[in-house]
Every structure is written in C-alpha cells, then in structure tokens.
Predict the 3D structure of the following.
Amino acid sequence: VQLVESGGGLVQAGGSLRLSCVASGFTFDENGIGWLRQSPGKEREGITCMQTSDGNTYYADSVKGRFTISSNNANNTVWLQMNSLKPEDTAVYYCARCDMEAGSRYFDYWGQGTQVTVSS
C-alpha cells in the first residue's frame, strides 16, 4: 500500500487549499479513503473517511461544512478541498486508507504527509 500526498502550502486565514493523493496497492471500491492531520503537540486526528462501497462519509466536527472529500476511483485519486481555513487547521495532513464499522473509524496506512500552514 502506498499513498502520496501533494498540494500543501501556506495560506491566509479564510482561504482555500486543495490536497491531492494518489493511492496504490488497494482500490477505493474495497476500502475507504480519508485524511488524517497532526498539529505540533497534538494527537493525530482522523478528519474524514469516505467509503464509496456504501456511500458513507464521515467528517470530524472540526472540519464539517468547510472540508470536502472526493475521489476518482478509476485512477485511485482522492482530494480534500479545504475552505474557510483557520489557523487551527495548521497541521501535517496525511492521506490514509480507512474503514468505518459500528460507528468507529480505522486508519491503517498513510502517506508521508503534506504541510498546511494557515496564517492569521
């Protein structure tokens, strides 16, 4: 399994960024795909997971209504559109394979990460 993220950078508060990820070694039809993030001094947070097999998508409360996950299953590409960015969104963002079961989310593989910095 391999996941490669791109698209991070520096943006002002209120701005937008779109992250991209190309995955290999599994298909989005079989597994979910999502994003994690980690800020300095904080635990890694699963912010979204999408299962195209059943149309189920999860967003953490911290990003709900501002971030949108989408994918092209034909070429195993996933995007994270991030709008109305806040300084507290500053983190390293990781594309990750995920699954959802019984109300819980599991992330088992992730990429190297891409830095997103939001200035105030």
About this structure: The mean pLDDT is 96.
